[in-house]
From TrEMBL:
The lineage of its organism: Bacteria, Bacillati, Actinomycetota, Actinomycetes, Micrococcales. This is Heparinase II/III family protein. It comes from Oerskovia douganii. InterPro entries: Chondroitin_lyas.
Length: 534
C-alpha cells in the first residue's frame, strides 16, 4: 500500500451520507464535539469510553443510532490535533464488537444495519487513505492501526456477504458499492475471486429489479431515484477507474442512462423535485426536466410536465419501500409554488405523532376513509408482509383528447375510486366515489401561507404572485360541507403547518365532483404553459 496510490482517493468519492457532519475540538486536549446530520451532538472524551454501541437515544433514536454507529465522523476527527489517538481508541473497541459479532451476529441488530455496514466500510476506506497519504501529526503506531483496519474490514465483508444480508434496495446497492471500494483500498484483505464475481452479478441483477423499463426505481420517492443515479454513476466510475474493468463499467453505465431518463420525467421545469414519498421538496441543478405526459402504471405514477406547471398523481406501487399511504393523491406545482401539496417528510421518529401522520393519509391530497387516518404508513404497506391496500392507476385519453386518470384502491371492505379529468395541468375535475361501512373524505392540502375564503359552493385560496386556487363543488344540487383545518407537514427540511380542506364523500357510491383551477387575479384559469417545449 503506497501513499501515491491512495493520495488520489482521498475525498474523491461521496459516501452518500447526508450533509451536516462536523467535528470540532473542545476546550480540553483530546476532547471533541461531534455533530451528526440530524443535529444531534455528542462528546468524545474519556467518558465516551467504553462506547455504548447499544445506547438508546432520546432524540430521533433510529436515525441517531445509525449515524453514531456509521463511523462517518472518524475521517473528520482524524484531521484534528489529537484526533488520530481517539480514532485508534474507537477502532479498537469497534474491532472487539465485530469479533463478538462473528460468533453472535445478532448483537449488531439495529434498523438499517446494512446501511450502517456500508458506511463503516466507506469510512474505513477514507481513514486508510488519509493514514497513508496525509501527514499524521499524532503519536500513534501507524502499522498497528493499519492492521486493525484490515482485520475490521475483513470481518465487515464477511458479514456483508452473509446469506440473505444484502437486500434489493438502496441499502443493498450502497453495500455493493462499499465492497467495490474496499476491494481496491484494502487489496491486502484475502478474498475469493468467485466472491468478487458474485458481487458484480448481484449488483447488476438487483439494479435490473429496482429500475424497471420505464426507468423508475421502486422506492416510491424521486429523491431516492436521484440517489440511485449518483450511486450507479459512482459504481461505473469505480469499476472503470479503480478496478480497471471497462466491460463492467459499461454494463453499469447502460443502467445509469435508463434511471436518468426516468428521473427527468419526475422533476419540474424549475428543477424542483416534488415531495412524493419519503422526502421533502428539493432542487436539482444538474438534470433538466422532460416536458409532456409520463405514465408508469406499474409504479402508480402519472406526471404532466409543462413549462409552467407540474401535475403528479399517485396510486399503487411496485414495492413497499418508502411508500406512503398516498394512493389517489394529487400534487400540483405552478410557477414553482406548491398549490395542491404533499406533506413530504418530517423525520423517521415513530414517537413523533406529526412525523407518523404525514406519512399516512393525513399528509396527502387524496380520497381517504377517516377510520384509517390514525394508521401509520407501515400499517398499510408493512415491510416483508403483504400490503393491506390493493391500489392501481389507469390512464386513458377521452374523446376530446384530454387525459383521464382513474385511481382505485381497496382496504378490506372499503373501496375508493377517484377519476381526474385533466383539462390542463392547472384545471382539473375530480370525481370521487366510495363504498364501505363508513363515509370517506375528499382531502386537499393547500399552501400554508394562503388566505382562504369560503363560500357556499367554493373555496378560494390566494397563494401569492397574483395566483389563487379555486376549489369548486360541481354538484351544487346539495349543500356543500367544507371543513377547513390545519396539519403538520415537512415540505422543505422543516416542520410547518398547512391548511387542509375536506369534503365528505358518502359510503354508497354517490359521486362527489370538485373542480380545482389555478386562476389569476381576474378569476380566469391560467395557461399551463408549453407542454412540448423545454
Amino acid at each position: 500500500m503506497t501513499p501515491n496510490r491512495l493520495g488520489s482517493y482521498v475525498g474523491a468519492y461521496r459516501d452518500f451520507s447526508p450533509h451536516g457532519w462536523a467535528v470540532k475540538p473542545s476546550t480540553a486536549p483530546q476532547e471533541f464535539e461531534v455533530r451528526l446530520p440530524n443535529g444531534f451532538l455528542f462528546q468524545i472524551d474519556d467518558r465516551f469510553f467504553p462506547i455504548e454501541w447499544w445506547k438508546v437515544f432520546d432524540y430521533n433514536h433510529v436515525t441517531t443510532r445509525l449515524w453514531h454507529r456509521s463511523l462517518c465522523y472518524l475521517p473528520l476527527l482524524a484531521r484534528e490535533a489529537g484526533g488520530w489517538q481517539r480514532v485508534s481508541q474507537i477502532l479498537v473497541e469497534f474491532l472487539d464488537l465485530m469479533k463478538r459479532a462473528a460468533d453472535e451476529p445478532t448483537i449488531l441488530g439495529m434498523n438499517s444495519l446494512d446501511h450502517a455496514i456500508a458506511l463503516q466500510l466507506r469510512s474505513l476506506c477514507a481513514l486508510r487513505a488519509q493514514l497513508h497519504a496525509e501527514p499524521v501529526i499524532d503519536l500513534i503506531d501507524i502499522d498497528a492501526l493499519d492492521a486493525i483496519m484490515v482485520e475490521t474490514v475483513a470481518l465487515l465483508e464477511v458479514h456483508a456477504r452473509s446469506e440473505g444480508f444484502r437486500l434489493v434496495n438502496n441499502h443493498g446497492i450502497m453495500l455493493g458499492l462499499a465492497l467495490m471500494h474496499s476491494q481496491w483500498v484494502f487489496d491486502d484483505v484475502l478474498r475469493d475471486e468467485s466472491q468478487l464475481a458474485d458481487d458484480e452479478r448481484w449488483l447488476l441483477a438487483s439494479l435490473d429489479e429496482i429500475v424497471d423499463q420505464d426507468g423508475i426505481v421502486f422506492e416510491n420517492t424521486p429523491q431516492y431515484q436521484r440517489l440511485y443515479i449518483d450511486a450507479i454513476e459512482q459504481i461505473s466510475e469505480v469499476a472503470r477507474d479503480l478496478l480497471g474493468d471497462r466491460n463492467s463499467a459499461q454494463s453499469f453505465a447502460l443502467r445509469f442512462a435508463r434511471v436518468v431518463e426516468g428521473y427527468r420525467h419526475l422533476i419540474s421545469a424549475h428543477g424542483t423535485v416534488p415531495a412524493i414519498g419519503d422526502a421533502q421538496r428539493t432542487k436539482d441543478h444538474k438534470y433538466t426536466y422532460v416536458p409532456g405526459v409520463f405514465v408508469s402504471p406499474g409504479n402508480g405514477i402519472y406526471v404532466r410536465n409543462t413549462s409552467r406547471a407540474q401535475l403528479a398523481i399517485s396510486s399503487g406501487c411496485r414495492s413497499h419501500v418508502h411508500k406512503h399511504m398516498d394512493d389517489s393523491a394529487i400534487r400540483l406545482l405552478v410557477d414553482d409554488i406548491d398549490v395542491v401539496i404533499d406533506g413530504g417528510l418530517i423525520n423517521y421518529d415513530s414517537g413523533d405523532p406529526d412525523a407518523v401522520a404525514v406519512r399516512g393519509q393525513l399528509g396527502h391530497s387524496g380520497l381517504f376513509f377517516r377510520e384509517f387516518d390514525t394508521k401509520p404508513c407501515h400499517w398499510f404497506y408493512p415491510a416483508g408482509a403483504p400490503a393491506k391496500v390493493d391500489a392501481s392507476l389507469v390512464h386513458w385519453v377521452g374523446d376530446d383528447g384530454r387525459d383521464v386518470v382513474d385511481c382505485r384502491y381497496i382496504i378490506g371492505s372499503c373501496e375508493a375510486q377517484r377519476r381526474i379529468e385533466v383539462l390542463s395541468a392547472t384545471d382539473l375535475v375530480v370525481t370521487d366515489r366510495c363504498w364501505g361501512p363508513a363515509e370517506a373524505v375528499q382531502r386537499f392540502l393547500i399552501p400554508p401561507s394562503s388566505t382562504v375564503a369560503v363560500s357556499s359552493s367554493s373555496v378560494v385560496a390566494s397563494i401569492g404572485e397574483g395566483l389563487a386556487l379555486r376549489v369548486e363543488a360541481m354538484d351544487v344540487s346539495t349543500d356543500t360541507e367544507w371543513t377547513i383545518g390545519r396539519a403538520a407537514v415537512g415540505l422543505e427540511r422543516m416542520r410547518s403547518e398547512t391548511w387542509v380542506l375536506e369534503r365528505p364523500v358518502g359510503a354508497g357510491g354517490e359521486p362527489v365532483r370538485t373542480r380545482l383551477s389555478v386562476v389569476d387575479s381576474a378569476g380566469n384559469t391560467i395557461d399551463e404553459g408549453g407542454l412540448n417545449v423545454v
